[in-house]
Design goal:
- With 522 residues, the protein is mainly beta.
- It contains four helices and 38 strands.
- The strands form eleven sheets. Strands 1-5-6-7-8 form a five-stranded antiparallel sheet. The protein has a four-stranded antiparallel sheet with strand order 2-38-37-36, with no helix packed on it.
- A hairpin with a 4-residue loop joins strand 14 and strand 15.
Length: 522
């Protein structure tokens, strides 16, 4: 009985102590909420980093910041299937910005690059009542641009041209607002540098707020010929995932507070790296083993189409790959996820015995069984490509309501714009796959419109298609009821390798003529 009494008294005293502590925390919380400043919230979190009100304080601080990403990574989100909220029906030039140019050698010879190109899709951010774009350009600079006026807010200079699209990561626990919003951005390896340099820091973390560098990452030498970074990182919580062009799928922290000083540089902390090619790939693809695509999140797995011919799936919980579909051909495009838990994968002709094209895969199945359909495209040489799709396909799943048909759109290098029902098989047709031997079902073809060749990615926004090509930009409306693809407008005479976004009735896209364009209706 005595021991029970002692235990009761101890429990009672502990409860009183906890209640007092909670009461103090709540008083401090109410005080911080009433003051409603970044300093008040930060002071609270320093005192109660894991308190009962810490999450509410972090959320309140983000509301106070009033920085809201709309397009935060390539193709909009971690599923690579959101391209904006509203497209215009006219392509009037509302403004254009001279992005400049840069000299970046190709195969050892000088080359002048103007504007921005593949993938080159702007990020879109709402901040304190204004809207901003983040775009890397061929003049070596990452730029923050006022989306209403085209005026440059800040620039950060890389060592080479910037081809890929960044990812804006929000870090709610950062005490400093400069480190709370971080752009993860890649570039080419560095003008004047060789593939065998010890350090090629072609991936960096840049503050969205100030444009200042926060960390770097060394893209190490591998059997692959490239040390560039074109892909856009996928961020989940406090961790980022990206296959660098050297073939290393890298799991890392984008938090500058966790960065480590190595070789005289503040470098992002790397948790894990997995090589996205094998010995057999080096025999068939030689050193063309580049990973240029942006990873896609689907059901706890991260999928990356690779230039080594594989679509890899990394299991987040198991911290290892548990999916590997070897298609054999080169793949540079990213794979949008669909509502039926599948991926739409674009394939080049290169390294395959069959045609390039597009396939739908269900990663819940293994091997060839995961390929639900294949849509081959024409084999024809076009610049340095042999055929197929260089960019990505786009899907309308994020916009389709009710019984609206689920569509995919893609453009091959010969200039055919295809629209297919990715959720419907054509029972009358079969097609040879990438291996040139295996027959697969084909999806129902809705439209085949000849425009111009491209390496870019078209986008869907509701029933509007925005299609960039080597000869201009084309704007279509889909009328499924009347089976019509209606050309609304075109802007011709400019080579668009970059990918567009469409937000609030405006289209933003960079051209190879040197300019970033804002299109809409005057």
């Amino acid at each position: 009985m005595k021991n029970i009494t002692i235990l009761y008294c101890f429990t009672l005293l502990l409860s009183i102590h906890i209640a007092k502590a909670q009461s103090k925390e709540q008083i401090y919380f109410e005080k911080a909420k009433n003051i409603n400043t970044d300093k008040a919230y930060t002071d609270f979190l320093k005192k109660y980093p894991h308190g009962n009100f810490s999450q509410k304080v972090q959320d309140a601080r983000l509301v106070l910041d009033d920085i809201q990403p709309v397009i935060s990574t390539f193709l909009g989100n971690g599923q690579r299937n959101f391209y904006g909220n509203q497209a215009p029906e006219k392509l009037d030039v509302l403004w254009k910005l001279d992005l400049g140019e840069g000299n970046s050698p190709v195969r050892g010879k000088p080359k002048i690059w103007k504007g921005a190109g593949w993938t080159g899709q702007p990020l879109y951010v709402r901040e304190k009542g204004r809207n901003y774009l983040i775009l890397g350009a061929f003049d070596f600079n990452l730029k923050k641009i006022d989306a209403e006026t085209g005026k440059i807010v800040w620039e950060y200079r890389f060592d080479d041209i910037i081809k890929g699209t960044g990812t804006l990561w929000v870090n709610p626990v950062a005490d400093n607002i400069e480190k709370r919003y971080i752009i993860i951005q890649g570039s080419r390896l560095g003008a004047g540098k060789t593939i065998d340099e010890k350090y090629i820091t072609s991936l960096r973390g840049i503050s969205y707020v100030s444009g200042k560098e926060l960390w770097r990452m060394n893209s190490t030498r591998t059997h692959c010929y490239s040390r560039d970074v074109d892909g856009s990182a996928l961020t989940i919580g406090d961790t980022a995932y990206l296959a660098l062009e050297n073939g290393w799928f890298t799991v890392f922290s984008p938090d500058p507070e966790k960065a480590e000083t190595r070789d005289g540089m503040l470098q992002a902390k790397i948790y894990r790296q997995i090589q996205y090619f094998n010995v057999q790939d080096t025999l068939t693809h030689h050193d063309d083993l580049v990973s240029e695509s942006s990873p896609t999140l689907l059901n706890g797995q991260i999928f990356t189409p690779s230039g080594s011919g594989h679509v890899y799936g990394y299991n987040i919980e198991k911290a290892k790959n548990d999916f590997d579909l070897n298609l054999g051909n080169d793949m540079n495009g990213s794979a949008p996820a669909t509502d039926d838990n599948c991926l739409i994968v674009a394939c080049e002709k290169q390294f395959s015995d069959g045609s390039g094209g597009v396939c739908k895969i269900n990663p819940a199945l293994s091997g060839e069984k995961s390929i639900l359909w294949y849509f081959p495209t024409e084999t024809r040489n076009w610049y340095v490509w042999e055929g197929g799709i260089i960019g990505s396909a786009a899907v309308n799943d994020a916009y389709a309501q009710g019984d609206t048909a689920k569509l995919a759109v893609f453009i091959d290098v010969t200039g055919h714009l295809y629209v297919v029902r990715h959720d419907n098989i054509d029972p009358t047709k079969l097609a040879l796959g990438p291996d040139g031997k295996t027959l697969y079902p084909m999806p129902q073809l809705i439209f085949d419109q000849k425009i111009e060749g491209t390496i870019s990615t078209p986008i869907f926004v509701n029933n509007i298609i925005v299609a960039p090509t080597d000869k201009g930009l084309f704007l279509f409306r889909i009328d499924l009821k009347n089976e019509k693809l209606i050309l609304l407008d075109s802007f011709e005479g400019v080579d668009f390798d970059a990918s567009p976004i469409a937000v609030d009735g405006k289209i933003y896209i960079a051209g190879r003529d040197g300019f970033l364009y804002c299109f809409g209706k005057i």
